[in-house]
Amino acid sequence: xxxxxxxxxxxxxxxxxxxxxxxxxxxxxxxxxxxxxxxxxxxxxxxxxxxxxxxxxxxxxxxxxxxxxxxxxxxxxxxxxxxxxxxxxxxxxxxxxxxxxxxxxxxxxxxxxxxxxxxxxxxxxxxxxxxxxxxxxxxxxxxxxxxxxxxxxxxxxxxxxxxxxxxxxxxxxxxxxxxxxxxxxxxxxxxxxxxxxxxxxxxxxxxxxxxxxxxxxxxxxxxxxxxxxxxxxxxxxxxxxxxxxxxxxxxxxxxxxxxxxxxxxxxxxxxxxxxxxxxxxxxxxxxxxxxxxxxxxxxxxxxxxxxxxxxxxxxxxxxxxxxxxxxxxxxxxxxxxxxxxxxxxxxxxxxxxxxxxxxxxxxxxxxxxxxxxxxxxxxxxxxxxxxxxxxxxxxxxxxxxxxxxxxxxxxxxxxxxxxxxxxxxxxxxxxxxxxxxxxxxxxxxxxxxxxxxxxxxxxxxxxxxxxxxxxxxxxxxxxxxxxxxxxxxxxxxxxxxxxxxxxxxxxxxxxxxxxxxxxxxxxxxxxxxxxxxxxxxxxxxxxxxxxxxxxxxxxxxxxxxxxxxxxxxxxxxxxxxxxxxxxxxxxxxxxxxxxxxxxxxxxxxxxxxxxxxxxxxxxxxxxxxxxxxxxxxxxxxxxxxxxxxxxxxxxxxxxxxxxxxxxxxxxxxxxxxxxxxxxxxxxxxxxxxxxxxxxxxxxxxxxxxxxxxxxxxxxxxxxxxxxxxxxxxxxxxxxxxxxxxxxxxxxxxxxxxxxxxxxxxxxxxxxxxxxxxxxxxxxxxxxxxxxxxxxxxxxxxxxxxxxxxxxxxxxxxxxxxxxxxxxxxxxxxxxxxxxxxxxxxxxxxxxxxxxxxxxxxxxxxxxxxxxxxxxxxxxxxxxxxxxxxxxxxxxxxxxxxxxxxxxxxxxxxxxxxxxxxxxxxxxxxxxxxxxxxxxxxxxxxxxxxxxxxxxxxxxxxxxxxxxxxxxxxxxxxxxxxxxxxxxxxxxxxxxxxxxxxxxxxxxxxxxxxxxxxxxxxxxxxxxxxxxxxxxxxxxxxxxxxxxxxxxxxxxxxxxxxxxxxxxxxxxxxxxxxxxxxxxxxxxxxxxxxxxxxxxxxxxxxxxxxxxxxxxxxxxxxxxxxxxxxxxxxxxxxxxxxxxxxxxxxxxxxxxxxxxxxxxxxxxxxxxxxxxxxxxxxxxxxxxxxxxxxxxxxxxxxxxxxxxxxxxxxx
Length: 1210
Known about the structure:
Elements: E1 9-12, E2 18-21, H1 23-38, E3 52-53, H2 59-64, E4 70-76, H3 94-123, E5 127-144, E6 147-164, E7 166-171, E8 175-181, E9 188-189, H4 200-215, H5 225-241, E10 252-262, H6 266-276, H7 280-283, H8 319-322, E11 332-336, H9 343-356, E12 361-365, H10 368-379, E13 387-389, H11 401-405, H12 407-411, H13 428-458, H14 473-499, H15 501-505, H16 518-535, H17 542-560, H18 565-575, H19 581-617, H20 622-635, H21 638-657, H22 663-697, H23 700-715, H24 730-739, E14 742-746, H25 747-753, E15 761-767, H26 774-782, E16 784-791, H27 806-815, H28 834-840, E17 845-847, E18 850-851, H29 856-867, E19 875-876, E20 891-895, H30 910-924, E21 934-938, H31 941-950, E22 957-960, E23 969-975, H32 985-991, H33 999-1009, E24 1013-1021, H34 1033-1044, H35 1061-1073, E25 1079-1086, E26 1089-1097, E27 1100-1107, H36 1124-1133, E28 1138-1142, H37 1143-1148, H38 1150-1167, H39 1176-1183
């Protein structure tokens, strides 16, 4: 036993005070809480039959015989034809009177059975149907806080209880046969009610006897008389110790009752009592340490899916779900999963990941639907021996098919042979996905860059004809200089030719074919001319003439010696002519002018050649050069033109250097890699389990144990009953867990079936933990090293304490000195789930934010009212919009006028029932809606029963709000019932915004109520929104519907919008090429983003994005994304398929892109599987796969250093 000096932890509150508390204290507190909520009848009036005599229900056969799976109760509801019901009473025979009495009794029982059946369909989550018998009676004084009252009370109670899984009705001509189905072969001992009349120490003696009897399987049907005698003897002894009187000799099995009780668990109390008896030192080794210690409670690891983190998720996941992996190393952690955020998918991924890394995992919930959803998801993997599922046979969802999925049926296949499958590297696909998604983002950035460069270059398009020639300012200046020279000389030449044409025809022809240096000739003539001008007289005598000739000869010889003979002779002829000095000078000038003319002609020719050479070097035609000169002339700024040309060339070079990939091919590769990754993970898990099974089969002792289990399963009429004995046979459970790494069952079954062994699991995952109370979670946490709570603290709570007096709850908290921080319901406080208490204790929390269930309009009320105010705004990634008829609305209010003469209660409304029936009929006849699932919800049991009787369709869920958490439907119809604003008080306790201690429960119910629909919501109300009183959530919801019910994602087709001319050209092309039945729409809104162009045809839609014109936009905030890849993933999640057109490809080869676009559209709408041929990357990945037994390839595999090791039993 635990000593008084238990180890405690000191929790520091915000105010600095310190509160000591131990784990065992909390366990004792939980034990008393369980006893409190299990005592007494369910809240409200009890729903149970009168006592059933043995002739109606042979209860002794159920208790004392073997393998009774069901029993029939035959009720007679019509009088035999031999009797006349109309004759006077005094004339009726005793036989007739007896028959009429039986009919009255049986009719009353039938009404009660039908009431029980109806109510359990509505309240099956928190209630159950049971058969009770073994009645005992006594008189005793009530015990309160270990003190006895003064007065004796008479008490009668059943001592034994058997769960009932279903009541089934078969109608005959004489009456009804009610079949009572019994799911299990164990009997619950109703000892909790004795706590009201026994001191704690006396009750402990009774409790110990019962737990010992359970350990010895004495409570398994058939019960032994000896056990019943011993049990009642132990109870009688304790009652006598407190002077009880008129005590029954023995429990009576002459009668029984069937009724509805709270879902409580004797095995839970047994677990809590055993845990409370342990030293805290031992308890601290389990995840229970999270309540009192900070050790391993603040771990947050970075998790990325780029291959750097081990991620073994076989199902799709988002960035928020991935974050859960980063906190799993903590002793306990919270995952907030608001409605529609993929809790089941996250849990399924987590279970597989943990199992794949060698962990043993338990998944439990108080809600069967939560277990079932995860089981069905794991089942799709088709991995043998992945999980052991224990179906809840008391659940209204249970069918015989569940038995096929059960652990019992799974273990029967132990001797079957299963083939392993090829597997590859576990991280390479993630690395490839990270690479491709990064390339995708960079590619779109480059597309936009190219577009912006093209746009910039388009502004320089006056240079389009010149950028290829690589010209510059220096080259252009040379060309211009040559042209100027040519132009100038050409003018001079033209002038000379015009003036001296005769000279050219005569003297000039002498020198046409001569080759000489023009400038030397010109210089020689100029020197001779200057000599004559300076030294020769105008006229001379004979002697003077002779002397002058000698001088002239000398000058000619000096200045003309290098001249060609022909030129020399011509000069000689002029200077020695018998003319005047002036004439000779004139003739020399003419000759010089001719040679200057000839020189200019030569220069023109040379410069023309040089200009042609400059142009040919650039491969530029003269016409282009001429055009370029005009551009400069028109621009007026040569420097600006060449700056523009340099930028034009730089842009072109940049465009040429940018590397682009096909976005469509990247999309295909990414999808192929994702598909391979999931298959690879599944194959890996499959192979690991089969290898482990093979190792287990190599152990003689393990083979023997499993063979015995299998034998028990094959012998048992209902195999699941073998599991009832597991709790006290740890070896069998450990053997099965070596084969089945994942176990799934209800929290009730955990305490009933799983051995109370410390850390028998590595992880326990508790779903719907916001509806799980602290006491229920405690024993499960003891069984695991780590606990992960999944739930939503803003949804409904456990309401078992709602109708318990505060003084009772305060008394057990004070008794165990439990501070408010841990109390399930402190004074003047709301009911707190285990998640609430975990939050108050600072457990690390991860929140799922992507909302997949419904469009933003449908989840918007919950978002605005509950999640946004605390910083948990949901990001709706669903855009499946189907308005009701031609209303354009997905949220609708239908106002009816009730008829007061037909109403029978303030909690029913016949007019609303009829309207609901009408709506269902309209929905079923609407081609767009006829196949959608429907739920009809109300806040009142009475209205739910009324509608259930009116709606004759088992596929339509009719329920109060409490029965819908964790469930969803395409269309939800609400009936608010209230007919008069004066009836406000009927709703305040359920949906009032104010209120005190129950306001969180009310808000949680409202949040659940208005977040169940996937596609449409219809509200049927007898009061218009303005007539509802203030301070009621329903009024706010009706106002929200009025404001937000209309959906308008699409604009008028005649007013198409375009972000760019590129988009307009593609739109125009598709309008021209596609047939009229294809509908085109631009700038379509989805998830707060805009899609460039959407093609609709045949009920399908294709998103076409023009890559380049627009910048990345993060949307309007509906969904937070960081880049193009996250944007596209979010939109794909919302149901969009994409085809992308590259602006660069369009510019480069428009005809090919047009052809590809039309081809894709036609194939997509004809049969999109045509588009799914394997990519090269998938073929390469497949090449690298191998069976485990084949030669090992270089690949990453997970490590199992911390694989689960079996522990000792408590």
